[in-house]
Design brief:
The chain is mainly alpha-helical. It is built from eleven helices and no strands. The structure holds fe (ii) ion.
């Protein structure tokens, strides 16, 4: 598995160079507009709990690797309430109705966020427990790239407004980074794989990064749309509603 983990880190470097992340690093863009893609990721964020609970987890575990998968799912299946908390704190909960929120969730310009989740379900469909661990690691590293940057943006928003964003900010990032540093990689690296199993894991990792990469272009377009709109419309750009947010950003 060691070479699979090295492959994941190579793929991560390529992923981090995609245009979305240049935008998130661009200090000339206003912090709230840079987070303008987050409502467009809502479907994925909410469904990620289900992916952990109902797709990745298998109880009882059939082997030690699946037990590790299950442990991971118990850490990762309950992060979406912090996303809802952030939406409340940013005042975005006041911007739309239930019907318009559902239209936005299933709109054409947010479809990659949905397809990303369907792709992950497809990638995981025939995986054994070791392959699931490889896919989880790839997902984690894409999250590490994204949340390292949203944390910096959230810090800037907190400095300006005092609002602490727990999902988009340091609270979530610290949790996600924590277990990677807990010696988990060393344990994973010790899993012995046949050449054939290693190649299968690498292919699954490639498919996982490709699925996330396809989503990034949609998110970059949502940021471009937000930055092109007047300040008052930043969070509303996704739903086309130029509604003034009551929270002073
Ligand atoms: Fe998370």
């Amino acid at each position: 598995m060691k070479s699979v983990l090295a492959h994941i880190m190579r793929k991560k470097r390529g992923y981090a160079a995609l245009p979305l992340f240049d935008r998130l690093r661009d200090e000339s863009l206003p912090a709230p507009a840079k987070l303008g893609f987050m409502p467009g990721l809502a479907f994925f964020i909410m469904a990620f709990g289900d992916l952990n609970r109902y797709v990745l987890r298998q109880s009882p575990a059939t082997d030690a690797h699946q037990e590790r998968v299950n442990e991971h799912t118990r850490e990762d299946d309950h992060h979406w309430p912090w996303f809802l908390e952030d939406l409340e704190k940013l005042g975005w909960n006041k911007l739309t109705t239930t019907c318009n929120a559902l239209r936005t969730l299933w709109a054409e310009d947010t479809h990659r966020s949905r397809v990303l989740m369907y792709d992950l379900c497809g990638i995981l469909a025939d995986c054994d427990s070791v392959e699931r661990l490889a896919v989880i690691e790839a997902i984690e590293e894409t999250g590490n790239v994204l949340f390292a940057l949203t944390t910096k943006i959230s810090d800037a928003i907190q400095a300006q407004t005092g609002i602490e964003l727990r999902y988009m900010g340091a609270f979530h990032f610290a949790l996600e980074s924590g277990h990677m540093q807990n010696g988990e990689h060393a344990e994973l690296a010790r899993i012995a794989l046949s050449d054939e199993a290693r190649d299968r894991c690498r292919t699954l990792v490639d498919r996982t990064f490709d699925a996330f990469a396809a989503w990034t272009h949609e998110a970059a377009a949502l940021i471009d749309r937000a930055t092109a709109m007047p300040e008052s419309a930043w969070p509303g750009t996704l739903t086309g509603q130029a509604v003034r947010v009551e929270v002073a950003l």
